């Protein structure tokens, strides 16, 4: 009974935590990442983890520990770098604001492992995100106005693109949340639990919310989120098709894919692509300045991504805004930070794929793998891979690790690590 109560209470607090974090993107509320509710949630997770250690029921995979240590060491290295850059005050303020986000993710992973929260976790996240998006759509109803200007979606001029923020500080913020929910809808309906154990009312509600989210996504004109969702759907189909083939066909499919991407890269002008996405200045200004400042190895320090947009302010960093997660890690932690963050991430994804090949009968397992790959693509244009302002990153990674637990519990024992 005690175990059941902890599971339910954790999911209830998670629902509240997600709603509060999503509320941070609204313009009507103070944009603060530090709230009493977030602190209470982290404190609760800490107590539960201590209880699990006391009962000797604390469980975490080595690959998850590697991922967690990578994040913690990146934070430490970046904090040390901020001292030499003389931005330690700004770094302290951001670290204080960001810690509840990172700690909540780190502390929730072993709890999901110990109590097997996957089914309840997925439903709780769907309830929270869908209710938030429906609230924003109803209070900022705009019909289908985006249809008239959808042809201007991929032009570089912001003034000519029809963009709805739905009361948030930026259209890309709500667009990213819509992308997250649409991916969750696909995972939910591909899940055997989602189709067999849920009521028809819940399925209809999830589907209806998905349609509204798609309308909202198109209305935001967030090109990174729209292309990410398209890539996600293509990946789900391609990976499913690949895993059904024998070894010989898989080999030829890999060769064909390599040739296809080589030709595609030769045909695409990436300079024009980044210029149209308004992201070129991210790299042409920041990377040369990082090298010129002799910070390439350990970065400027752990600060908010928007801080670099004030590069000509009192700190005279002479940097520009950062809208790429990969560039953000490079700017904050340098090459050392990139190694600490990206190697554990890539190894976690590789490990998941190894398990996936032994559990390819579950379509939702495939969808989760494709969701993380899509998240990495989105990181080229937003700091959304793992950043406090994007609650979608928290959702994607906690679902990812919960599915690792699911595959290891019901799948082949060779996947255990």
Can you tell me about this structure?
The chain has 417 residues and is mainly α. It is 70% helix and 0% strand. The chain is built from 15 helices and no strands. The chain has helices at 2-23, 36-54, 62-84, 88-115, 118-139, 171-190, 192-196, 200-220, 223-243, 247-267, 270-276, 280-292, 325-358, 363-378, 391-410. Helix 3 (62-84) packs antiparallel against helix 13. Residues 410-417 have low confidence and may be disordered.
Mind sketching the topology for me?
Elements (H helix, E strand, L loop, with lengths): L1 H22 L12 H19 L7 H23 L3 H28 L2 H22 L31 H20 L1 H5 L3 H21 L2 H21 L3 H21 L2 H7 L3 H13 L32 H34 L4 H16 L12 H20 L7
Helix pairs in contact: 1-2, 1-5, 2-4, 3-4, 3-13, 4-15, 5-6, 5-8, 5-15, 6-8, 6-9, 6-14, 9-14, 13-14, 14-15
Helix content: over 70%
Summarize the main sheet. none
Unreliable stretches covering 5 or more consecutive residues: 410-417
- Radius of gyration, CA atoms, in whole angstroms: 21 Å
- Molecular shape: globular
SS-derived structural category: mainly alpha
Report the strand count. Answer: 0
Figure out the total of helices: 15
């Amino acid at each position: 009974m005690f175990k059941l109560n902890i599971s339910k209470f954790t999911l209830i607090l998670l629902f509240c935590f997600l709603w509060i974090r999503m509320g941070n993107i609204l313009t009507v509320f103070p944009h603060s990442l530090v709230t009493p509710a977030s602190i209470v949630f982290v404190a609760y997770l800490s107590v539960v983890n201590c209880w699990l250690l006391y009962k000797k029921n604390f469980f975490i995979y080595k690959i998850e520990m590697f991922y967690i240590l990578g994040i913690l060491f990146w934070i430490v290295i970046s904090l040390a770098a901020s001292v030499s850059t003389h931005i330690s005050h700004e770094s302290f303020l951001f670290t204080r604001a960001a810690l509840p986000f990172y700690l909540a993710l780190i502390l929730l992973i072993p709890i999901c492992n110990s109590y097997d929260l996957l089914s309840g976790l997925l439903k709780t996240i769907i309830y929270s995100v869908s209710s938030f998006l429906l609230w924003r759509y109803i209070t900022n109803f705009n019909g289908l106005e985006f249809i008239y200007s959808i042809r201007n979606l991929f032009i570089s001029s912001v003034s000519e693109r029809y963009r709805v923020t739905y009361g948030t500080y930026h259209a890309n913020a709500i667009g990213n949340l819509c992308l997250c929910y649409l991916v969750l809808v696909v995972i939910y309906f591909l899940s055997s639990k989602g189709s067999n154990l849920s009521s028809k009312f819940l399925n209809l509600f999830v589907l209806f919310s998905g349609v509204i989210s798609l309308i909202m996504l198109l209305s935001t004109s967030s090109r990174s989120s729209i292309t990410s969702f398209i890539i996600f759907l293509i990946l789900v189909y391609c990976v499913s098709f690949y895993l059904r083939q024998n070894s010989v066909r898989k080999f030829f499919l890999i060769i064909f894919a390599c040739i296809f991407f080589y030709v595609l890269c030769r045909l695409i002008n990436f300079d024009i692509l980044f210029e149209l996405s308004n992201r070129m200045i991210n790299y042409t200004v920041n990377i040369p300045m990082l090298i010129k400042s002799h910070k390439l190895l350990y970065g400027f320090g752990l600060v908010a991504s928007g801080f670099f947009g004030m590069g000509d302010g009192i700190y005279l960093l002479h940097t520009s805004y950062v809208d790429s997660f990969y560039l953000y890690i490079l700017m904050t932690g340098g090459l050392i930070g990139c190694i600490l963050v990206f190697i554990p991430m890539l190894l976690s994804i590789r490990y998941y794929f190894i398990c996936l090949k032994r559990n390819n009968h579950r379509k939702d397992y495939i969808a989760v793998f494709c969701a993380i790959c899509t998240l990495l693509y989105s990181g080229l244009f937003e700091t959304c891979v793992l950043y406090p302002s994007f609650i979608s990153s928290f959702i994607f990674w906690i679902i990812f690790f919960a599915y690792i637990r699911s595959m290891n519990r019901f799948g082949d024992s060779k996947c255990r690590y």
